[in-house]
């Protein structure tokens, strides 16, 4: 979902309420995932800011492979949140319904 973040932003601007709901859930998942400051910064630069990992690394003052590790760890934590939601019937549902 993070890879499609900008598509959801574009669709929301066109009035797509499901895209808006997905974006809300993405941000809720980010908040719930317990990311470190560096993990959050890497996600924001790479997925929200559309920078390459190398460009994000330059901004963060770290190597590209470290950015990659931060993104991978963050994505695992975010995936865990979505899995939890799926098991407990929370978060975004196909058809635009939200539970929880």
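Sequence proposed for the structure above (100 residues):
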């Amino acid at each position: 979902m993070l890879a499609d973040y900008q598509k959801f932003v574009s669709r929301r601007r066109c009035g797509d309420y499901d895209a808006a709901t997905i974006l809300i859930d993405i941000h809720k998942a980010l908040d719930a995932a317990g990311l470190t400051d560096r993990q959050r910064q890497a996600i924001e630069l790479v997925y929200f800011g559309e920078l390459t990992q190398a460009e994000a690394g330059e901004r963060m003052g770290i190597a590209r492979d470290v950015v990659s590790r931060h993104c991978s760890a963050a994505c695992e934590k975010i995936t865990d949140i979505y899995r939890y939601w799926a098991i407990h019937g929370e978060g975004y549902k196909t058809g635009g319904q939200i539970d929880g």
